[in-house]
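Obj.: predict assembly geometry.
Materials: sequence records (below).
Method: joint structure prediction, all chains together.
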Amino acid sequence: MKSLCAFLCLFTAINFDSDSFAEQTELRLTELEKIPVLYNGRKMPLDSFARAVLLQFSGRQKVGDEPAVSWLARTFFTPEALSPDPIFLINHPDVLQSLGVEPKKRRRYSLADLHAGLPKLSEHALRASELKDEQRSPVEKELIRVYGNVGMYLQLQNSFSFTLPNPNLVVKDEELREQMGFTDDGDRSFVDIYERAAALQPYLTSAQEKQDEGTWTETEREAFRLAGILFTQSHEHRDLAFTLIPVDPHGEEVWVSAWDALSLNIPDGALRKALLDLGTVASGYGAADQVEFDMAVRSYRRFAESRIGTDRALRFMEMEVRMNRWNLFGRAAVTYVIAFLVAFFAFLIPQRPLRIAATALILVALLLHGTGIGMRMAVMGRPPVTNLYATFLFVGFLCVVLGLVVEWIQRNGLGLTASSFCGFSLLMVAQRFFLDGDTMHQMVAVLDSNFWLSTHVIAVTTGYSGCFLAGIVGHSYLLVLAMAPGNKERLASIYRAMMGILAFGLTFAFLGTMLGGVWADHSWGRFWGWDPKENGALLIVLWCAILFHARMGGMIRERGMAAGCVLGVIVVITAWLGVNLLSVGLHSYGFISGLAAGYYAVIVFEVLFVAVLVPLAGRSGASATQR
Amino acid sequence: MTRILRTLISLRMVVACLAILMVLVFWGTLYQVRFGLFAAQEKFFYSWIFLQFGWFPLPGAQLVLAVLFVNLTASMLFRFRFGMRQAGIILIHLGLMLLLAGGWYTHRFGEESYLALVEGEGSNVTSDYRAWELSLSDSIEVEREITGFDTRGTSSGTVFRAERFALEIEAGTYHSNCSAYQGGASSNHTVNASDITSLKHADPNRDPEANVPGMICTVRDRAGDATDLLLFGGDPIPTLIETADGPVYFQLRRKRYPLPIFIHLIDFERSYHTGSSTAKSFESKIEVHVGEVVREVLVEMNKPFRFQGYTFFQASFEALDSGIELSQFAVTRNFGRLIPYFATGFTVVGLAVHFLLQMAVRKR
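Observations (raw structure tokens):
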């Protein structure tokens, strides 16, 4: 048994020691990943931006084995016109058919794969975007999504193109070259010419004074050509999505792309130096010069940090990078799975060492899980639950804590099994939301209240936890009753745990629902408005009340109570997720797509479970009583 | 104990009521997707009985909640044994009784209206979201006395008597939702300030706030002279009729409620999170005139302004073409707003006491 524990501890240790791709490449990007950028209204490190964008494109955080930030650096500094990176996730086969692209098994396509279909993609997506949302079929929605992603990718490729040598920007005229301080006629970057644009001015002025273009000198023609390219390119690259430069042209904080910063033409020495630093970052990357690269990145970061000043987001940038790198929730989920297997055996074959091993593993997972939640709270400066994704993290955490409390009281493996199951299953569901991109986005004005997020939301999610865990324990009760009906003591202890947890769940579900009413009274002027989310929470309270009253009145017995708790899982997920799928009501901040299948699958599973297990458990229980 | 009373306080009755309520809540929630919140509220939640398929009667939430209230009261009187061991149960049920009573009081006596002000504008009346009124006044000055008639339930033949103006107004046709047309000769020689000559009936909107009513009526004065009048809710100009007792202006407008204060909107501001279209804050700086006393107040999301039972919430805004902004406040008047707070307190404490007592008893 000791060797089993040693193996489990070793597994957990290995789980932590995953190497990063960045260390295998020639250039370390640890400085680059901390650069602050603004995306969807949130200041975040470049690492988070890279992950969010890659998740948005491909539903993954890596391209093959390459981390997101490394992929993004390649995209920025060595862009390929027909990149072979398979990053565009296309789910719908009809989209591929309409673009004339051969389907692939992994459903991820590169720009090179899509190249021939891009004109059609543009045409179809623009037409689809003219339709109202309710008129769009899944194919149209997918076309718009893919078009948006390809467009964003092309913008990312161009974000640093001002620093890259451009064959059109060769200064052929010797006199002009001399005036601009170039020693050879090699390819120049936009920023090279832009920096020396003052040297073009005398030639442009003299050319303008001449009436006839035919009388222009070769140098004047060259100056005019270069100025034209500067003008065209700065217009072509306006409003790029990648905004990393904080400026305050009118005393108001605005973040712009590097191209837009160049166009701003602000007489700002620090900004000019920052742009040159970005040029050095690109050249350092191209030459794989770690020292030059790191120094330029640091110099740029100092500029950005001086602009952001006292913003709290800046203080937690490094923590966010660490949080991303550690992948605490992923590791917690894996540890919960191992703990569940051990705890399940401990539940079937009560052995103290197995219980100790399972407890240790759950505590390790809980520590990772809790640390992850804590780090998110620190980074966001918010209570633990701010969106649907965070509810899964938090409810999972609470279920594990509640399960451990049950285990502490009963010491029979039930709490361990239930808590580890809830831990990994809810973290898995959270993973589905995580794939949508940034999970720490800004709060809309009406929800922007840390007080209510700390009271109503915490209370109602605690209620979800209790009722969900009671449902999981209900499954155990029915399974044990069906398979080992003679084990009365175990059944009684499971039943006690189930009732206790359900009571806990009801108390907090009621409190959360009513606090929601109080918040609504403060925000919208009415305590109760029969909004779908309010109704969902009320359904949980009503269901729990029905179960307790039916039990008290002798309308159901232990088996019925357990079946009720199992069906309560359906009520909980309906309140939690189902009403969001309706897409109506004032709580329209939490709408999600693509979860309907999972939601219906849970309903079907629970109904089948009850339909099969309740009669089975009834027969087994009856025969055990006769014996 | 009579059989009826036993049935009334039975747990079977409770379970049945809770189960029906659960079905209504679920059904009503799904119903909102297709028919909107208002229709769901009217059909399932604010009704005593509703007809499914047009003929099959089913209990509405009001009936179920009333039965539950009676059940709770009867149980409190005849079933619960008062003592420490039942303290939790009694507190829970007292809280629930209070919650149901508070809900009924708010539904019955609470007022909901709105106040829309353009920057620089002020008002001492709010408007109803759905109810309309026929208003009569003898001038169109800003400060004027108005006689108003609620038009809910108006149909052909409904008569409004305005004694102040010695007028009798008889509705010819009334549309709760319609569109208006100008131009051409009026088929029934009606008078209208905006030259609206006809009304076309429209089906009620899913959102009743979007309904715009219209009516054609006959106005008779003291001398017996009759004038046919066409009024449309979307017409901003009152129609003037010269009566035997002088000029009277008629208008169909959203029902107004007087406020005990005058509110003047100084400025509306909205801000977004940097670099995004996610709203960060909406706030209105208002001037509140209470008699001669004037003070400035900032109304923000989650920070309403309260005054003598009235509450003003920042509800929405509109950027007008002129560059100035319009701020809309939801205004509620509800003297029972604190009842659910107490009810929640009682019930939660009761739940905690009950379950902790149960655990303590089990341990012993």
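Conclusions so far: Chain A has three domains: 46-158, 162-311, 443-626.
To do: check interface contacts against the pulldown list.
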